Amino acid sequence: MPSKPSRPNRPHPAFFIAALTVLVGCKGEEKAQCQAMFEEAQKSIKVVKTRDIDDLRRVDGELAGAASKCEEAGVDQAITELGKAREEIAKQIDRIEKYGNTGKRAKLTEDELARLVKDGDPKCPKGQAYKHQASGKEIRCAGPLPIEMGRAQAEQYFLDRDYKIRPIDDPNTLKLEHGGELLLLEFKREEDPDPAKCVTIYPPPQQSWQEAISRFSGKNPALLRKGGSLQTKSGKMDIDVEQGKDKLVVRIGDCGK
Fold first, then answer.
1. Running DSSP on this structure, what letter comes out for residue 125?
2. Residue 170: burial class (beta carbons within 10 Å; 0-12, 13-18, 19+)
3. Residue 77 contacts by C-beta under 8 Å, 6 or more apart in sequence?
4. Burial (0-12, 13-18, 19+ Cβ within 10 Å), 167
């Protein structure tokens, strides 16, 4: 009897971060920026959802950005280690593309691949890109970011990623939970086609506030600042971070604490 193809196993986070050791002696402005982006990449890899192809691609894009900055700074150690981590992520993406969650190989036709190369992949948030393993072609992501989604679209997006909708008294607020993460998306009205006016994030353990915002907005975590703001499709949204011992709450937008 022919053997069945294996499903994409969930590698332990250490599988990805083994290459990312601590950088030492990065002095100078460019090298300091390399150091900062490298450290954010370490944090992202520790919490990457290894069965979520969108999250893998997002982190891969973050690693690529860090590698580019470190190449400018001439930090060879970082370039090498980031490259190794990207290779492991590419392998995991390839496993998911080939076998999905059913154990069956998912093949694209030539026309489907050509359309993805030309128009982008609407199933992953824009600002990212990935390499189609079978062809080696680069495919950019063309889908909306969670921070740009209306209520119905946001519900479907997070349900597709195994989040659970939890009951809440306010009909204008969508409450979502996944493991140790809790999201509150406050809309102006119950069936609002416009993006949430306020996003409150209770990140899972070990996730930084920068990473929490980056996952939702697609912004580079190394460029985020407490008390700063995000420029989004619907306008500027303020960032508020409430941080203390055993407590981290991130708010984006008009949250009216």
1. E
2. exposed
3. 21, 23
4. exposed
Torsion of CA 66, 122, 254, 192, to 10 degrees: -170
Band of pLDDT at residue 26, cut at 50, 70 and 90: low
| Domains in the chain: boundaries | 1-100, 107-143, 146-253
195 close to 150: Cβ distance less than 8 angstroms: yes
pLDDT tens across 54-95, in order?
788 888 888 888 888 888 888 888 888 888 888 888 877 777
Residue with tokens 């894009």: 61
Residue 241 has pLDDT above 90, yes or no: yes
d(CA 186, CA 136): 41
Owner of token pair 């009205």: 189
Residue 44 has pLDDT above 70, yes or no: yes
| Helix (H) or strand (E) run with residue 73 in it | helix 53-73
> What pLDDT score was predicted for residue 239?
96
Is residue 122 within 8 A of residue 114, CB to CB? The reply is no
Tell me if 225 sits within 8 A of 178, measured CB to CB: no
215's CB contacts (< 8 A; 6+ apart) are 55, 58, 146
Instruction: Please state, in angstroms and rounded to a whole number, the distance separating the CA atoms of residues 86 and 67.
Output: 10
Helix (H, G, I), strand (E, B) or coil at 137: coil
